[in-house]
Amino acid sequence: MDSLPVPVRGDPPIRLGGALLGTHRHACAFFHTRDEEYRTLLPFIQEGFDRSEKAVHIIDPGRRDDHVRRLQSVGIDAEVAEKSGQLDLRDWSEAHLRGGSFDQGRTLAPIDEIRRQSVEQGYRRIRFVTHMQWALESRPGVEGLLEYEASANLGELVDPVVCVYDLTRFGGDVVVDVMCTHPVVIAGSLLHENPFFVPPAEFIRERRLRLADAARKASDSR
After folding, report:
1. Beta strand pairing status for 14-16 and 19-21?
2. Phi/psi at 194 (5° precision)
3. What share of the chain has pLDDT > 90, as a percent?
4. What CATH superfamily classification does 21-132+141-220 receive?
5. pTM of the model
């Protein structure tokens, strides 16, 4: 894979997956086990806490206790951090699946509010970590995952966003499409520039054409 873009001048370097995160801040991360996930991501999370940056973690509600224990293992007191406002720990029902379904606009609204509040609170940066298995839930709208991921690249991201995918849960076809929506990827616990990245407008256009073609073929076969 290609070399990573250089960090922005004057911006403290962000370490992720054994490399420095450059100008591309939207990363997908693929893991086979939780141990592999946290071994890779905890240094990135801890670096943010050490720099007094804000952390927003959107997690599987069934993994909340385990997530808190993992943070504690590197000296992060999640309870204290939540009370101070440095850590915003949310499960899917408070973010992507608000109201029991996925709606991109309804998801982006609270994230925009988090960013606004973070500035007011004096945080220089937010580090986002999101478990993406919400898209496997049997909920209305989850089929919009890929357009949502692609749309994240339409504007310039200053805050790093790591979208975490469990390779034991997602099929190969979804993984390929997910890779197309992220300019950088963590694979084998290492961060790489992603040669498979497709510009968002192009990806969304091609995906809609594919879906329309598949619907037309299905209708013709009836």
Report:
1. antiparallel
2. -100, 110
3. 78
4. P-loop containing nucleotide triphosphate hydrolases (3.40.50.300)
5. 0.91
